[in-house]
Amino acid sequence: MSKIVKQTENKLYNAIVNAVNTAIGNGDLPEAEMPKFIIEKPADKKNGDFSSNIAMAGARAYHQAPRAIAEAIVKNFSFDDGYIDRCEIAGPGFINFYLSDKYYSDILKDVVESGDSYGRSDYGEGKRILVEFVSANPTGPMHIGNARGGAIGDCLASVLDAAGYDVQREFYINDAGNQIEKFATSLEVRYLQECGRDIELPEDAYHGADITAHARNFFEEVGDKYADCDSQERRDALVAYALPKNIEGLEADLGKYRIKYDKWFRESTLHNDGSVKAIIDALKEKGVTYELDGALWFKASEFGNDKDIVLIRANGIPTYIVPDIAYHYNKLVTRGYDKAIDVLGADHHGYIPRMKAALTALGIDADRLDIVIMQMVRLVSNGETIKLSKRSGKAITLNTLLEEVPIDAARFFFNLREPNSHFDFDLELAAKQSSENPVYYVQYAHARICSIIKKAKDEGIDISNVNDSVLNRLCTDEERELISHLAGLTDEIINAAKIYDPAKITHYVIELATLFHKFYNAHRVVTDDRELTQARLYLCTAVKNTIKNILVMLKVDVPESM
């Protein structure tokens, strides 16, 4: 929360305790142990800015009716800190507290003076977090689910960073195992077809146009050089040619989407450096494996999974789970991250207990791994589900999506709902330049404020020396509501970081834009009253800075004119 809000709540708590002790000292209350009480924000502003149940909580301790206790506390309450203006008793004994003008002016000064750092905190200081997201199969283009996972993972990393964590972004490249074998088979068949061989592509191979294009380009470069060689040599050559191009394409596509990873981690390194074998050996040493039907099994059912799982098949090849365990061991032990966060699709629910079981068996606290499950997205246009790009007629990949809608809209829209909720992405709405489009609505609020400030500056109105007496002029409901919302940003970022939900930040900034438009429609900013104009321009500056900070965090453009 804003440091002013935090200070106010702490001071209010201490002031209530002091009022109780003073009341005891003056004989207005009998001596007794201080009861536990709470301070909360009432839903209805008519009941004050803060409310406390101290009188009800103390009824048993002080052997008096709550209202009488409340009267004793109010009588002895000190307003010395300057942030509480008055307090009143309501109902059976609630004490409602109302904030002073100084509180609101100090909030505004905090926002403006903090500048680009407003909203940031040291909540997660000293904790290192690795966020792994997208990690799309490098054997083909990224689909629409990867587009949502990219926006969620990248914005989540930004939120964690703003909350004070040391955050790294990582892409895990599955460049080993069954997927690569299937990739090699697909390329091999398409290449041999280019060489004029009559051969059918297996049903379970990759049938995409990208495979055909790779094989054709390879043939154009080397001809039929690999047509009659050993199959493994041919497959290795094809994968060595096509896979780097696919990975390069993934990096380029994600870069266009404004995602930059700190590390691209290859699965193959875990096989090459002995990490996969080391995991098998470690599980064996801990006595949590057994052999059955020629395969090596992990006793996962003893560690919270619903059944045991195969580690090494009867043919001697490890299952996909083994390098995945090695990868998470690398994150949490070898590299020593305090937390590893994986953003995964909804089809990975069963993956969570399996991976946590393996970590527990290896003596690692499984709570250090958190999985953010992301539901799939449904693309709609005119209320109908669509699967093909209007321009190309192809299945919508990340690339084709960004041809249909602006990058700003894509990143913002995918963070409009919490990750584990189903989401309809309205292509037409995302492309609209109107207030119906949430990202346009927020950007427009920022641009409008820039226009207001520029106009005022042209008229020679300066806010550099605005003082408290000027800011105290901001006393209407719309102005106070706007300032109160500004005060909540830091707390909102921390809450979003705690529950891994960047959607809380998009909701916050949409509400901020809504409150600004409400204020703007109710009050003129530039008026004949110079002091009031200065105060409202200062408020506008605080809103502008806050919108900018959030849009920068989400990697969304911050236009100054629209």
SSE blueprint and pairings:
Elements: H1 3-25, E1 39-40, E2 50-52, H2 54-57, H3 59-62, H4 66-75, E3 84-90, E4 94-99, H5 101-114, E5 128-132, H6 144-162, E6 166-173, H7 178-194, H8 209-222, H9 231-256, E7 263-266, H10 267-272, H11 275-285, E8 289-292, E9 295-298, E10 309-312, H12 321-334, E11 339-345, H13 351-361, E12 369-374, E13 377-381, E14 384-385, H14 398-404, H15 407-413, E15 423-426, H16 427-431, H17 438-458, H18 468-471, H19 477-487, H20 489-499, H21 503-522, H22 530-553
Parallel strand pairs: 5-6, 5-11, 6-7, 11-12, 13-15
Antiparallel strand pairs: 1-2, 2-4, 3-4, 8-9, 9-10, 13-14
Helix pairs in contact: 1-4, 1-5, 5-19, 5-22, 6-20, 7-8, 7-9, 11-12, 12-13, 17-21, 17-22, 19-21, 19-22, 20-21, 21-22
User: What is the straight-line distance between the termini?
Assistant: 32 Å
- Fraction of helical residues: 40-55%
How would a crystallographer describe the biggest sheet?
Answer: 5 strands, parallel
CATH architecture descriptor text of the domain at 435-553:
Orthogonal Bundle
User: Given the C-alpha coordinates, what overall shape results?
Assistant: flat
Low-pLDDT runs: none
> Can you list the strand order of the major beta sheet?
7-6-5-11-12
Number of strands: 15
The value of Rg in angstroms is 30 Å
The CATH class of the domain at 435-553: Mainly Alpha
Strand content: 5-15%
- How does the helix and strand content classify structurally? alpha/beta
Could you please say which CATH topology of the domain at 435-553 applies here? Isoleucyl-tRNA Synthetase, Domain 1
Query: What is the CATH homology-level superfamily of the domain at 435-553?
Result: Isoleucyl-tRNA Synthetase, Domain 1
User: Can you give the mean pLDDT?
Assistant: 93
Number of helices: 22
